[in-house]
Each structure stands twice: as structure tokens, then as C-alpha cells.
Amino acid sequence: MSPPAARQRYIANKNENNSLIKKPKKFINATLKREHEKSGASAAKINNRKHQKERPPENVNVVPSVHTAFKTFVSVRLCSAICADISDCDEIYNYWEPLHYIIYGQGLQTWEYSPQYALRSYTYILLQGVPGWIYERLFHPTPILIFYMVRCMLGFGCALMERFMYKSICQEFGVHIGRLWLIFQLFSAGMFISSTALLPSSFAMYFGCAALAAWWQQMYALSVFFVAIATLLGWPFAVLMGLPIAIDMLWRKHMFRTFFMWSAISAATICIPMVVIDSSYFGKLTFAPLNIVMYNVFTNHGPNLYGTEPWSYYIVNGFLNFNVIWLLSLLTPMMLIIDYIVVPAKTKSTLNFPRYITLAPFYLWLLVFIFQPHKEERFLFPIYPLISLCGAITVDVYQRIFYRVKTLMVQIKAGTVGSHYLDHTMFIAILVMLIGTLLGLSRVFALYRNYHAPMDLVMELNHFKNSNEYRSSRLYNVCVGKDWYRYPGSFFLPARNFRIRFLKSEFHGILPAYYADGENATRTSHSYFNDLNQENDYMYFPYENCHFLIDFDTDKCTSLEPCYSKRSKDWSVMKSLPFLIQEKSNSFFRAFYIPFLTDSYTVYGNFNLLKSKKMKPS
């Protein structure tokens, strides 16, 4: 049963907005039925007369049901699973490669998985590895099919979270804000990228936002458990999302017993299996979440070795992924203050929680991460759905303020047809939804058009596997040089006798290496790994032993990064695809695709898959 305050709010939303175009949720129906039985026939007649007089606004009747929203979420997330490129090399080498090792016994290992550091948890990898392993054993698909199966699984999991969150937002913030949030989520470029990424930050988004949704429905035990999953199995820093929940339970509600009991239950349920699994893989007692916190927070070098960015990085990145919705989300606190001053209290909804605490996870996260020198796009993944929520709240508040100002200028009789604030302000919501949708689609199309070439290129090796030249007994070396970070992963290689190899380039940081052969490969420490981002010659492969080479031709040739495609005596071009040259392209038109204009302001080079004319087996 939903809580009393929520029940009243649902009834109000039903009566005023007639919102759900399909069958309302079961608990809403049950609530309305009980209220009807209690009221009696006479009260029902009075109610009917009242509703005939105070008709809902005609232009706000369409609000998707939870089931309809879920179907749209699934459709969009599956599109992401198929079409989105891998935007972060950390996703490839720290997650897809260990997953490939779990399933096939072969893959690249980074220094974070070396036992002397043990920063990453194999438990998280096994969550995807076990279904992938079962799929491989039952049907023996090609590796690329397992890749897309895992991605579709991630997309479906994200859709489940969004369904739960949509239901909670409609309950806590109202169906109009829920409708806005739904549209913003569906057409967000940020959600298109993050929803199917095999990253702990995406996993933290699933369960962190599910925890908030449970909290808004006053399911406190479930919210604590979800925060624990996001923090321990996902990303330790996701604990920030649970801090407002803890404050609400301990300070506002004094639910000490519930909080500490479920914290202990959650920790034991998750940590014990996790420590057992990771200790088994690393060959020593290991608690990976603690190790990664110690490295990132309490070491002198830490993540800053991998690059630093100014505070404005997240401002720009937020606009790229959420366009005007991001800007609106930053204005939410100010708009809520104006709303409190300008809009009469009687027009406000009754909420389970004050806004300053329900929205605190978003601003707390920004406050912490915006001042960290090392910044990555994926660090904001956990709060992506909250960007849409805060943007939706800002739009709703602006509509209320606009209506309030209009009522001061033009007399509008309360309780009559056309007196609802949405009757006079829906053009604002429609305009924002239209702009957000067009910019979101423009960004998604630009990403696919500009950066998808490496995934399509490596898949071309599958055609070679089906040719007469292919020999199953031969080991084929697929080499990458300066474009090592664009390689999409071993799942795109057609068979186990293909190996990715690294050529020396202008990059002088640490690269991954293959897991050692044997059953205890994950327990083996290697001298060539370090946590200082220092290169080691062990990772480099002899150029003359390459059978295939992946190289982006930008016409900038150096001794370490030659234009391999011009070495016609050594290489033939198997396939070439266009790939954006960022430094030669306009920053706006490379970020957003504008028909008839983008081509005039962007420059593309050839991303080549080359085949050796010598083809010497190694």
C-alpha cells in the first residue's frame, strides 16, 4: 500500500489531470475503489457534479502509464545497445577485456587487476560474465554476439530502473514533472551513452537512482540495500547518493534501528561473497572497494597522473549530453526559491520530503566532483537521471511562475474550465521538450557518424575469417599504434587465434598486457605493471610480425607514428571508414549534427584496417 500522503497526491493527480491514458497502476485503482466505497452514493454524486464543473485541463490529458513508459525505455535502451560506440578506453580495458577473459580464458589485463594493487573487483565482472559464459556454452555464438547480448542485458536493467524511477517521480513530484522527465530521459545523449556502458559508474547509476526511487516511496529498507549495491558492487563513491537518505532516516525520521539493521544486513549480504570471490581470484584477502578509495584519495599520485581538467569541464560536458536540460538543472535551486516567494502555498503539492533533501544527491555529487582535478565524463553517470529530474522541476516551476504573473495581470476565475496553470503554460513545456529532443537526437547522430568507425572496422576481420586465406592453426596479430585507446576490444575479434598487439607510439603511459597462461593467471604478479602510469617496453610488439594494423590516417606522420597506409609495399587496405579529425573541425558542428551545415565545418580522415602483404605467422 502506498503511504497516506502519496495516496492523497495520486488521487489529486487523477482527479485534476485525468492523466493516465491506459489503465492506472493497480495500487491506484485499489485506492480509488476504497475511497469510493467509503464515500457512498451521495458523496459520489456530489463528486461527479464537482468534477463536471472543475474539468481538468484539456491539453494535459496525455501522460504515459508506467507500462507504456517501460516499453519506450526498453526500445530506446536496446537501440543504444546496438548503436552506441564505446566512448571510454577504461571501459574496454578494465571491463570488457577481463570479461572476455572470464568467458574465453583470454584477454588483456590492466595494472588495476594485478594482485599487488587489486583495485578492481572480479565480482562485478562476474555479474555479466556468468550470463555470457552460459550463453557461450549453450549456443557457441561468435564473441561479437556475446558483446551485444551483454549490452542488451545492461540496457534492459537500465530500463527497469527508469520504470521504477518514473513511478516514484509521478508519486513524489507529480505526473507533469514525471512526463517531462520521461521525455528528457528518452532523448538524452548522456543516457544513450551511459545506459549500456559496462562501467561501475553506470552500475552505480542503476542502483543509486533505484535507491532514490525507493526512498521517495518510503521503502527505506530497499533504498538502503540499493545504496549498498551501488557502493560496494559498483563504485564506492556512490555512497554520496545515499547520504541524504541517511540524513532523512537518522535526523528527520529517527529510524535508527531500521537504518543500522539494514546497513548491516546489506553489508554482510554483499561484502562476504565479494571478499570470497575477489580473494579467490587475487590469491590473497582482498576488498577491492577499499583499495580503490585508498588509491584515489590517500596516495600522493593517484588519478591525477591520467590527466587533469579545469572546473568548466563538467559544465561543457553536461551541455553536450543534456543540452538545455543541463542548464535548467543548474537553475533549479534558484527557481525553487523564487517559486516559494512568488507562488501561493495553496498551489503547491503535498510532498513526502522537502525539495532540498530530495534533490540533494545531485548537487552534493556536483559539489564533490567538480573540484576534483582528474575529471572523466563517466564520473557524472550516476546522476544523469537526476539531471533530467531537476530540469523537469525547473520547467514546471517556470510554468507556475508564469501562470502566477499572468493571474496578476489578467483575472482568471478559480475552479472553472481553463483555470489550471497547465492550460496557460503548456507551450513552455512543449518548447523545452522540442528543443531538448532535437538537440539530443542531433548529438546522438553526430556521435555515431563521427566516432563509430573503429567498431565497424574491426568487425571486417570476420570476413577474413570466412575467406580462403584464413588458417585456424595460425596466430594472427592485430596491431594498433597511436589509436590503442580506440580499439573496441577482443569481443570484436573473430576467433581466439587473433591477438591485439601494441606498437610503440608517441604515447608513453602504461598499457595493458595479456593475462598469463594457466589457471592461476589472475593471481600472478608482473614486474611490468606499476601504478605510476609509466610505460614498459614489455607491452610493445615487433612491427614486422603484424598481420593486420588498425590506424587512423590524419596526414600527421612522425617516426613513431607513421602513415602506415602509405607504405603500399607492406600493407593493403582491407577497409577504410571516415573518422572525425577534431582539431580541424568546428567545435559546435562536430558536437551536434546539423543537416546541410555540418559537412561544411567538419573534416574527416580515413580510419584504416590494413592487411600485411607478407602475412608471416608468428
UniProtKB/TrEMBL annotation:
TM helices/strands, residue ranges: 141-160, 180-199, 219-247, 259-277, 319-341, 353-371, 424-448
Region described as Disordered: spans on this chain: 34-58
InterPro entries cross-referenced by the UniProt entry: GPI_mannosylTrfase (IPR005599)
EC number: 2.4.1.-
Pathway entry: Protein modification; protein glycosylation
GO biological process: protein N-linked glycosylation
Keyword NADP attached: no
Compartments reported by the entry: Endoplasmic reticulum membrane
Entry similarity comment: Belongs to the glycosyltransferase 22 family.
The name this protein goes by in its record: Mannosyltransferase
